[in-house]
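seq as requested:
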Amino acid sequence: MIQQKTKKDLPFTGDQKHQIVRELGRNPNKLEWMILSSYWNHKFVRDITKRFIDNFPKVSHADNKSTYSEESPFYNISGNISVGLELFTCSGFEQEEVNQKVFERIYHMNNKLSSKGAVLRGAYCWIGVGKKNKGKNYLIKQLVKNIQNHFEGLKLTKSKFDFSYDRIFNDQSIISMMTIGIRQDGEDKNNSNWPEGNLVFLISPNSGFTNWENNFNMGIIARCMVDRQYVVNFTTVDESGLIETVIHAALKGTTGISVNINQIPSFDRRKRIEHIVSSPHSGGLLVIVSKGFQKEIKSLCKDNGVYCHEIGYTDGSENFHLVNNEKKLVSLPLSLFESKMEHQPVSFTAKKEDVVQNRDLDKSSLLIPKDLSSVLLEMLKSGNVVEQEDHFISVNDITELISGNHSSGELIVVLENYTRYINLDPRVGTTSTILGAIRRIVSRGANPIGIIFTMMIQDLSDKKNYYLFKESMYGVTDVCNSMGIPYFNSDISFNNSSFNSFVFTGGAVGLLENSEFEITSDFKSVGDFILMLGSHRGELGGTEYLEQVHSRIDGTPPTIDLAGEKRVYEILSVANRGGLIKSASPVAAGGLAVVLGKSVIRSDRELGVRIHMSSKIRDDELLFGETQGLFIISVDEDALIEIERLCMRFGVSCTAIGRVTDSGLFTINKLISLKVKTMKKAYFSSKKRIFGSLPRV
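struct tokens:
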């Protein structure tokens, strides 16, 4: 799903204007030019995005009985139960503005999923903010409370908030949200070739978008329409506006539609007539009803407490008409919107060095701290390290609300954000972001089944923005094709707000086929061997350590070996099903020392860790380098030989680096020596400081 908000339309070339005049047989009036310009501006973005997305492998119909469309894909998880996801990203920190954006988008997604027969049951909200301060903390609390109220108003049963503090966001906030809908499989309404005389209705919440109960009712009525025979077709009103949604409906139904401007609600007649073109009506439903059934649709809406406005009809022509009572304001052939007319050429010649100010990291300028134990404690207090808890969304228990039975598998959704990597190299950064989500799914014992992402970027007419967009889409394509994991869903937003950075949140959907295969990250038993799967290269570019200790965000992000990473996934899968693995964690923000520390901190027993490893890399690289595709697992002694055999078979390095002890001490070579109690105090006090005052769902 794609948003586009621009301050100026992409202008037509002279040849394009002549082509429009020739097809129309006259000069368009001002309002007609506005509609055409708006439509073609959005089409420009849709076409560019479609070129990339069409190259993504889609969810297979044959293998998993899922249904896919650009509007909303669904994945079958058990019997006739399917799950669909909708995502969005927005920015800003003006409280009222952000609340309105979030509110409208939540209900837009609710209606979108509901229009496919789904019940909205879960939501995930990730908020990225700049440096903390008291004023901003207050705004975050208010925002979270309002979002929480939205969730409660929609009667969501499974919801989660997560936060990331990063100075790259400055004084802005970035909100990425995902909603989860569950449905019993059924046919979507997809009729075409609608006959003349069908009625066009706009259905919207009673009392606007600030009434939670009425917006919840919108979801109910959308699901009701799936089964109503007199409802020919219905869709959510697109973010690009009501008029474009009507045009899309006319193209889909291969019929002309006439809309009466006086019947459109909330149209301020004191403003210029052109205002109607940009009026979004986000969250509403556009419904095509069979002739003679207006009483039935109005009664259905009244019973569910929502407004129902008859705004037009299908007229059997091949035109889109906009009228004011009897006066015809617009009459445009649908062929103009389907035209193969080329967009005005834009020279996108930006190179990497023009956009990304990236340079190799001069390690000689980095002094290794003398007290590395204190460095680890500070790293464990970092917001980005604490944020990387196991914030999985599981919808296994949600399906019971519909089916009455638990599904045989558990669906897991993970979102990640590697902002520092992305700003240093957008292609590597977006690849790392999605792989980060996949790693966490694999380390949980689940199989990754789909890729999701949100993207927010400025207007594509700027060559630098186009470069960021193009490289990021290549990054997604790299993961899909190399890992053999299909693209599932996305939200791509282009906007001209004051926020001037590129935001990418990537994620993955996984299926845990059996709870017996579930793995956790905490160490389990005294005497267990700790193994490192993969080769530790110790890269420091763009790492948490570099920012926290040296106050720098530069260098080249850690390299990615997609083929090698896939082999590690296969080892983990085979070993887990053989009952060989007791814990697993991917190396992520903070590096090896942090992931080892978190694994012992999360244990509910008084354990310790003794690590000894020889290395040719620097001490800070060994401890805090964020090598991609590196996993830490723990196994008992009897499984050690089998794991090593597996790694030899797949050609993956396997190194025994230490053991779990009962000493209550955490030691790595002679570099770090800490009491686990001290580490737990630092970690959990930071967690309380960052998240404790925030309302949690």
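The longest strand covers residues 173-184.
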